[in-house]
Amino acid sequence: MSTTSFADELRARSDESIRALFELRPDLVTPVPSDFSALAARANSAPSLIRALENLNKVAIDLLTAMCILDEPFAKSDLVALTDKALTPEIEELLLRAMIYQDGNKFRLVGNIRNLIGDEPAGLGPRLPTNLKIDFALLKQAPDGAIAMLERLMWGPPRGQLGNLKKPGPAISWLLENHFLLAMDSQTVVLPRDVAMHLRGGKIHKELTLAAPKLQGTPRKQKEVDRAAIANVSSFLRWCEELAHHWSDEPPVALRSGGLGVRDLKKCADHLGIDENCAAFVAELLYIAGLVVIDTNDQILPTTNFDLWLTRDLEERWHGIVSLWLETSRVSGLVGKSESKNIAPLGPELDRAGLPAIRRSVLRLLQQNLEIDPANDSINEVLRWSAPQRFNKDYIEWTLREAEWLGLTGQGGLSTFGDSLINGSEDLGIQSALPKPVDHILIQSDNSAIAPGPLTLELSNMIGTIADIESRGGATVYRFSEASIRRGLDHGQTGDQIKDFLKKTSKTPVPQPLEYLINDVSKRHGKLRIGTASSYLRCEDEGLIAQILHDKNLDHLRLRKLAAQVLVTDTDAHEVMTTLRESGYLPAAENGTGILVSAPAVRRAKSRPRPPRILSDQSTPSDVVLTSAVRALRAGERATSHKPRDVPRTTANETLDLLHQYIEQQASITIGYADTNGGVSNRIIDPVSISLGTLLARDHASGELQSFRIPRITGVSLVE
Amino acid sequence: MSDGPLIVQSDKTLLLDVDHILSDECRRAIASFAELEKSPEHIHTYRLTPLGLWNARAAGHDAEAVIDILLKYSRYAVPHALLVDVADTMSRYGRLRLEAHPVHGLVLVSSDAAVLKEVTRGKKVAPMLGLQLDEETIVVHPGQRGFLKQALLKLGWPAEDFAGYVDGEHHDIALVQDGWSIRKYQELAAEGFWHGGSGVVVLPCGAGKTIVGAAAMALAQATTLILVTNTVAARQWRDELLKRTTLHEDEIGEYSGSKKEIRPVTIATYQVMTTRKQGLYAHLDLFDAIDWGLIIYDEVHLLPAPIFRFTADIQSRRRLGLTATLVREDGMEGEVFSLIGPKRYDVPWKEIEAQGYIAPADCVEVRVTLTDAERLAYATAEPENRYRFCATTLTKRRIAIELARKHQGEQVLIIGQYIDQLDALAEELGVPLIKGETPLKERERLFAAYRTGEITCLVVSKVANFSIDLPEATIAIQVSGTFGSRQEEAQRLGRILRPKADGRTARFYSVVARDTVDQDFAQNRQRFLAEQGYAYRIIDADEILNP
Prior knowledge:
The complex is a heterodimer of chains A (about 725) and B (about 550).
Chain A: H1 6-12, H2 15-24, H3 36-43, H4 46-54, H5 58-69, H6 76-82, H7 88-96, E1 100-103, E2 106-109, H8 112-117, H9 146-154, E3 159-161, H10 170-177, E4 182-183, E5 188-190, H11 193-199, E6 217-219, H12 222-249, H13 262-272, H14 276-288, E7 292-294, E8 300-302, H15 304-311, H16 314-327, H17 355-368, E9 372-374, H18 376-386, H19 393-406, E10 409-410, E11 413-414, H20 416-422, H21 430-433, E12 442-443, E13 448-451, H22 457-466, E14 468-471, E15 476-479, H23 482-490, H24 495-505, H25 512-524, E16 535-538, H26 542-550, E17 560-563, E18 566-569, H27 573-582, E19 589-590, E20 596-597, H28 623-640, H29 652-665, E21 669-674, E22 680-691, E23 694-699, E24 705-709, E25 713-718
Antiparallel strand pairs in A: 1-2, 3-5, 4-5, 6-9, 7-8, 10-11, 12-13, 13-15, 14-15, 16-18, 17-18, 19-20, 21-22, 21-25, 22-23, 23-24
Helix pairs in contact in A: 1-3, 5-7, 9-11, 12-14, 13-14, 17-19, 23-25, 24-25
Chain B: E1 6-8, E2 13-17, H1 23-31, E3 35-38, E4 43-47, H2 50-58, H3 63-73, H4 80-91, E5 96-101, E6 105-109, H5 113-121, E7 129-134, E8 137-140, H6 145-155, E9 159-161, H7 184-196, E10 199-202, H8 209-220, E11 224-228, H9 231-244, E12 252-255, E13 265-269, H10 270-273, E14 276-277, E15 280-281, H11 286-289, E16 294-297, H12 305-313, E17 318-323, H13 333-340, E18 343-346, H14 349-354, E19 361-368, H15 372-380, H16 383-391, H17 394-406, E20 412-415, H18 419-429, E21 433-434, H19 440-452, E22 457-460, E23 475-478, H20 486-494, E24 506-513, H21 517-531, E25 536-540, H22 541-545
Parallel strand pairs in B: 5-9, 10-17, 10-18, 11-13, 11-16, 12-13, 16-17, 19-24, 19-25, 20-22, 20-23, 21-22, 23-24
Antiparallel strand pairs in B: 1-2, 2-4, 3-4, 5-6, 6-8, 7-8, 14-15
Helix pairs in contact in B: 3-4, 7-8, 17-18, 20-21
């Protein structure tokens, strides 16, 4: 009998059918195979088949298992005899996926499938050697316990362990004698396939679930689901924002192996008032979205992308993050599990293949079952049916948990926003569903302030710097304290600015004690000044101090007078000493306690040893980071591509970024520059350098070098 | 999105907008399961605690009702996790029951074997349990009832107590309402307590807690033990009971340092209860002297530790705690609740004020700038002496005297912590001083003279922090205190909150040295009152010296 080869069969398929195959098994076209033999080889390769198996539901897998039991080639009728007639459409499906192929009217399995399904398909043992015969009628006379023994092995696994085969009990020895069991080694017996098939009544499977089980759960109303989801969306976005701000204030240092340490994670969780799993999730997404990065000095810091991100509306922010979550293979759920102790968020060990597929299938299932909060067991059962090879209870649980955090779901059910997102629609309707931002706060006499709803960005930034958050939710409760006011002053606010802001924003009068608190703190703030200097000069003769200060020869030491008898400088003490001696003074060195030291000690470097970094240690930025970097660049470019005379407004951060960029490019630019009266004029300049908040640039109008105060630059654009 | 008065926060606090049209309705609805945490002018804060939710269960509310209320009044979407948590917490209540057993006395019963197993494995719980009678019943050592309940609460499996209370020896007590009548909130408080069995009633100073006690006694109709802070307070209780109830003088006994009377109604001081002789508490037997039907703890926030321990032993008696300020700097509020019983009634101070039962008060912090010499001395003082130093400076004393003179003719109280400071003040002003060593007779005489207006200015040490009833005092000047104690501040304000005959506003001055720890402590002290809606005004001492 001539047999058709797999490649030949493929070759004979129609173009449509090959296309369909490629759609179902996309890995077969990357790269495009050179010919049908190559295609057949690839379709038969284990990795490709494993992927294909992962996409099969339970019925298809059961059918494949049944095929493994049959001799090749097999006919449809053989298969039906072993399983069920209702399965015949699945045969076409497997054919289409090129997991079986046609040989005339019959079918053959693609070679590697048998290896992947295993030696004991459906829990069936080896065949009875052909020289042995079994008389099933004998079963009626089986001794006590023998039938029970067979029933134990009947649905697999077909092997059983015995204490000692040489001294079997009466039941076992009867079964062995009559070949109902075969001995494998001195301690193992096996139930032969023929016996099992007889006991199973000629069918392979105990039960065949032909259709997916129905998803069970608590019914919910879509309106309530959406309400809950929107609450989740807004808290999630707030977490992102707050965490990035928190890291900007107190950047954690990444572990040597990369990633966020346990203690820092706990700090984040405490700061946000959420559990550590959730904090790890938020941190991961910020990282994936390129909103934070592990900086070259190992500090974890928000990027400039974060500033851009903040300027977008909430829907856009959410859309961006959720899309990344759907695609990412990083699994923050692994963090904190006892079996994966050393896995840290932002670390290198979070990738797991197949996660995006699981997320998609979970969401698709929810999409097909709206208004239901699925019960855990039920959703596991359904997903185990629809893709048994991919099933992972933890991954499903995490996906559901994360979907709820993100606000894709609310009260467990899929929200309309999530639904639209999965369907790929542009307008998700989140922006209009979110509670309207409020533009005021209520200050109470116990020095707390309440924002009775989400605050506008500007307000929340300002109040975030001068007060601590005490409670979060639909509203935010802030508390003013000495420390929080001090932080505001550190951020460059003045006491009067803070008071004006509060008066303007508070719907209720600002309590007098709060005003006093602000006055008190701002009065004391900055009274004590701290700076750095490398060495000092002191002398009881004030005249000598004055003389040194005005000595032209010593100008390069840049001496500063702190008090009548004290000068300081950034120059190293040894150098100062030498210079002073050269200029004819008679300085002597003293040590920390003021005792004269006659000779300088042996010199050593002051900084800690810092051997050069090994290149491979540096983590290469992930794709996501690169993409968003490019995106950010483009956005920056767009912002600068305006006509001269029409300089766009840029924020201080953007201005600074752009200036650095143009200095590097040595480009001529137009800037809007505010004068002391607040009028804005445009200047065309060549920027040269930036230092101390001042831009040094050559002004085209005057042709002279001129300095520009950066806060007064209202916008920057390229000269076209 | 509904526009409700309530904002449910994810940290389980509830913010109630009091200016909202539905706020009253909402307040009544949530009061049954949430605890009032603070009540400043605009937004009141309530908190959902397991204890509060379990009390609600005990009072017959189920989780569904609680969730319904939250959803109904909430302005924004309620966090789902919180709702799940509420349902979960409430379902834990009642799985364990304490019941009276005809043979074994007290037993712990549960139909949920797993829960019973879990709690019996608890390290703290195991020693309190005896023999396991069957799968669902375990014998409890009778003396351990209180401790067991407390330990189970900590494990998160509160036991519903069906073992009931002993009735105690019967004694007829009734209120005599001639010329006065019990106020609505007092009645509600007494009833709230009675239905709950045991618990704490929180009412502002001057709102008539004694009447609540008397009303509770009238409901109990049984012999009563009343524990109070000191002898003066004991006498006040006695006078009040004689005036308000059918009790006669020979029915009320005083059990204090000087007298040891045990009568159907006995008033004892905390001090005598905790007196030790040769290391033993000599007077704790009083708890067993009579079959008490009711025990009242006045100023329960001061409950001393030995009485704490004893209270755990007498769980089968009804216990009523009375306080204005259940804040303890040692964080023992929780212990009070679990030993005396949960909060049965609580009402914001400002609400009673609005009803006219306590006087409105104007709180003023007077900031005094120390002289340069004082500042220098302060800066170099040892840290542990710093507060004493800045609190007792001469500059502060001068301001206090100036204030007292300014209010000459009004009833003024000057309150302080440090005796030498008070001595100097009393001497300079030429007014009497009451301190710890002042004999009881003398104290009573001075207080009586003050009440009649014979004396208009008194200097008192912390002996007058509590329970001293001085209805006509309108001005209090605080010169120093027990560091940052919030309840002391509130209690001192309480001394001047009795409504005045002419409806005058009381004024509370706190003299504080600027830029010192005095100011930091003052801030902490003021928190409780600020949270009750008392807005402090700050004025500079110069405004008093040169008006």
